[in-house]
Amino acid sequence: ILPRAGTGTKLPVSMSMVQTRQLSSDPAKKRPEQEEEADEGPNWKVIVGFGLFAASLGAFLNIRHYERTRRQQEEADRNREVNVGVGGQSIAGQSVGRPDIGGDFMLIDQDGKLTKNTDFKGQWMFLYFGFTYCPDICPNELMRMVEVLDALDKDTATEKKLLPIFVTIDPERDGPSQLKDYLSDWHPRLIGLTGSPDQIKDVSSKYRVYYSKARMGVNPDEYLIDHSVMFYLVDPAGRFTEYYGQNATPEEMACKIADHIKSFRP
Fold it and tell me: What is the reported pTM?
């Protein structure tokens, strides 16, 4: 039995008791298990940080690969479109046929006569899709069309070989009489074609022509039409040959069309 404290008798204290008390009472000292746990913490942080970095790098590289692939595909599409537009050139040594543009149609001309695409067989067709109420684009394009015709008519090899055709995309307002009045001011050989909305939709789809109404007022006939701007050249066999956008000058178009006419073989 140990003596009670406070009696003046000193209690024997061993070194092991002192060490035990110091280990248990000193908050700075940690058990071996705690030291092991403390060592594991930074390792997990490094692993997680590295994983996030790797994931971010992978996502960045994937995006770069996608963007590079997309640009290459767009460039290939543009090259294919340009080459196909001239009636079947070659791309990287591979032959490309004619694009699926154009086709049969049955419409009404400015004299009210039923007109089919086969009626123009044996002639070079030069088509433009527009509408007579167009405030600026269509008049400008018709002026360019006339310049092309005038340039070709100066050469006996191409004189009167090109038949200009204006196809309306506004059949509700552009009837035969409206087309006749409007087109008579542009060129004597210019033919105007109209039809029902479904017929116009069909021929526009075959030539890949985009158009959409933009309402300008409350009245049904108060609208403009947003549409693609393109000329289409069709050979005497009825096959699409080439198209020309707004960037092509009348001189460039006339030169290319003349080459097609002179080199054509049925």
Answer: 0.64
